[in-house]
Amino acid sequence: MSSPVDRAAFNVEQGSSLLFHGGLLLILLGRMAFALVWPMHALDWYLTVPAAACSLWALIQCRRKPGMRWAALAFGVISQALPIALRRPDMLILMLGGAIPVLIMAGMVMALIRGKPRRS
């Protein structure tokens, strides 16, 4: 990271992945808090606890490792989508519709990181 453009792209990527992790961690902790009041399926619990630990680990330890941050984020999202898809396969269409804007935003962040600016 030598040029200011590279540093700016790294800061954008780091900020966006930390924002994604923060949102995912809040969702996971909220699900765990609701499990104290209402019963949660065992599969949901066994996937939510490691996903929350992995997301928290990524927030703390992976500040300079973008690949590890994105891998932990993907694990957290998949671990929450898997029980829903197993119980109600018709929800896959709705989840794919909701994933399109997230995938577009993640693709733009990746393009910003990997792309070199054009010089006029």
Describe the structure.
The protein has four helices and no strands. With 120 residues, the protein is mostly helical. It has one domain. The radius of gyration is 17 Å and the shape is globular. The two termini are 22 Å apart. The model has no long low-confidence stretch (mean pLDDT 79).
Major sheet: size, sense and barrel closure?
Answer: none
* Overall pLDDT: 79
- Please tell me how large the radius of gyration is: 17 Å
What form results from the Cα inertia axes? globular
Q: Which structural class fits the helix and strand makeup?
A: mainly alpha
Number of helices: 4
Strand content: under 5%
What is the N-to-C order of secondary-structure elements (H for helix, E for strand)? HHHH
Termini distance?
22 Å
Classify the helix fraction into a percent range. over 70%
What is the count of distinct domains?
A: 1
DSSP, total strands: 0
